[in-house]
Design brief:
By secondary structure, the protein is an alpha+beta fold. It is 26% helix and 20% strand. A hairpin with a 3-residue loop joins strand 1 and strand 2. The radius of gyration is 16 Å and the shape is globular.
Amino acid sequence: MTCIFCHDISEEAILYQSRHFKLVWDIDPIQTGHLLIISKDHFTSLSELPLPLLHELAELEQEVITLMEETLPIDGVTLLRNDKNLMDEGTHFHSHLIPRQKGDGFWEHITLHKSSYSLHILEQTMRSR
């Protein structure tokens, strides 16, 4: 399958580029001003990003969120990242920057099938680091 992020984003659609990432409008926005930060290389997970790219991503997210908060009538930004099997087919790792207003109902409308599994191994591993 062809990755749309690797092959189908036109230069005109790119709002900004850093060395390893590009910034575009989301084509199916949750809210007006919804942006995506997409890695230029095809990674399937945040855990695959080399540390220098992870730092670049964090700096870019901070820069874009600051600009959003300074230029849009919003109360903040929700940052979400999609990776691995949670991504839409034909995409790769990316971050969503969603402009928000207090009381907009964002979290109230999310419904998930609650999974039941032990967190013991994760907790034990984190505590022993």
